[in-house]
Structures are given as structure tokens and as C-alpha cells.
Amino acid sequence: MTLTITYLGHSGFLIDSGRHAIAVDPFLSGNPVAKHKPDDIRCTAIALTHGHSDHLGDTIPIARRNQATVYSVWEIYEYLTEKGLTKLEPGNPGGKIKTDFGFIAFVQAFHSSSYEGRYMGNPCGLIIHIAGHTIYHCGDTGLFSDMKLIAEIYKPDVAMIPCGDRFTMGPELASMAAEFIRPRVAIPIHFNTFPPITVDIAQFRPRGVEVKVMKPGESLALD
Ligand code: NI
Ligand code: MN
After folding, report:
1. Between helices 59-66 and 74-82, what is the axis angle to 10°?
2. What ligand is nearest to the CA atom of residue 31?
3. Is the per-residue pLDDT at 211 higher than 80?
């Protein structure tokens, strides 16, 4: 089955199987590199790595307009419940939620998670299984060797890896992350959106892993 992955800029993607479309970390308003507006997003689900504003982004209006189910950790679920959303699926690291498209699992990430001063639970990476593909979106994280274990468990064919330095790994450590995960294709994320995370992405060059640097708005089709 063909899966279309559209890069929304920063850490955001739209993962579309034709029947199901999952928006991950849909940060569009206030995103200087985004080519999409929140109203452009047609999705059946939204999956969030953590609660920082550059990831939670436009989740609430997009979820409302699309009647989309939001997958997140418990504390974000509580926050979205207070905001009046009802199609919500909470989880936490180590756990997996079976879905109508496959599954979403939450894995660890070394980072923080808050929104407007409120604690938003554990930051996560996401494993998304859809249309015969398994995607590991690392969220915002530092390097950790259990990325190897996560890869051994889920065998992702695509990995989305933060590369912008300062708040996450930079390109050199992200290259090590890609070598730990060994996906068919590694997509760098969370770089060059804002001046503090400007890097030379040519330095992201993991050995033995194909790198696909996507431009915001660009799509990739996987068979
Ligand atoms: Ni963050
Ligand atoms: Mn971030």
C-alpha cells in the first residue's frame, strides 16, 4: 500500500494512507517555514510527541474541524479534555494503542514537556504503524542507546530524527541515532526553523542509512 508522507516543516508531518491520515505535531501558525495553513490539513488522527508549543501547535482547531482523534500522553489528554475535545486516546511511554489504521506506541525521549507553564507529562517518541510501514518519529530528544532497542522491537523503515542542536541532538549525534535505528530512510527534522536551531544539515550523514532531507510542503511516497 502506498503511504504518502508530507513534511509540514519543523517536526510536523501528514502521514496519509488514503483511508487514514495522521497529522504529527501540527505546528503551522507561527511556523516561519510552514507552507500549509491549519485549515489545509485534512486528517483522521493527530499524534503528539509532547506539549511544547512548537509541537502541540494547531492541534485544537485541526482536531475540531476534522473530528480527528488525538493520541497523546495522559497530561496532554487532560489538557485537551479541559479544552472541550472528546475524541482522545491517552497513553504513556512503553505502551501501545491499537487503532483502525494499525497502532501508535509511545517510546521514551530525553527532553521536557510543558505548555504555558503547565506540566504536560513525559516527552515521547512515537512509533506509528500504518499501511505496512512503521515510522519512528523521535520527537525532541537527546541521543540514547536504547534507540537500538526501540528499533529492534519495532523495526521502523522510516525514522524522523531531530537535528537542530541546542534543544535536541545536532547533526553529528543525530547521525549516531540513525545508525542505532537503521531505518530504510532517515528524515532530519527540527532544524533551520528558527535561528537558534540553524545547522549545516549536510553534517547529518549516518553511515549505511539513506538520508532524505525534505523541504516543508514536500511529499514522499512509500510503496
Ligand atoms: Ni520540545
Ligand atoms: Mn521542539
Report:
1. 70
2. 2
3. yes
**Domains annotated on the chain, with CATH:** 3-222 (3.60.15.10)
Residue with cell string 494499525: 102
Q: Would you state the cell numbers that stand for residue 53, as one nine-digit string?
A: 508549543
Query: CB pairs under 8 A, 24+ apart, for 207-212?
Result: 207/175, 207/179, 208/179, 208/182, 209/178, 209/179, 209/181, 209/182, 209/183, 209/185, 210/184, 210/185, 210/186, 211/178, 211/185, 211/186, 211/187, 212/185, 212/186, 212/187
pLDDT (mean) for 156-174: 98
Q: How far is the CA of 62 from the centre of ligand 1 (A)?
A: 20
The confidence score (pLDDT) of residue 164 equals 98
Residues 86-116 pLDDT 10s:
999 999 999 999 999 999 999 999 999 999 9
**pLDDT confidence of residue 218:** 98
Q: How high is the pLDDT of residue 1?
A: 74
Euclidean distance between CA atoms 24 and 131, whole angstroms: 16
Write the pLDDT tens digit of every residue in 119-132. 999 999 999 999 99
User: What's the CA-to-centroid distance between 148 and ligand 2, angstroms?
Assistant: 22
**Any idea which ligand is nearest the CA of 111?**
1
| 105 CA from centroid of ligand 2 (Å) | 20
Q: Ligand 2 centre from 193 Cα, in Å?
A: 10
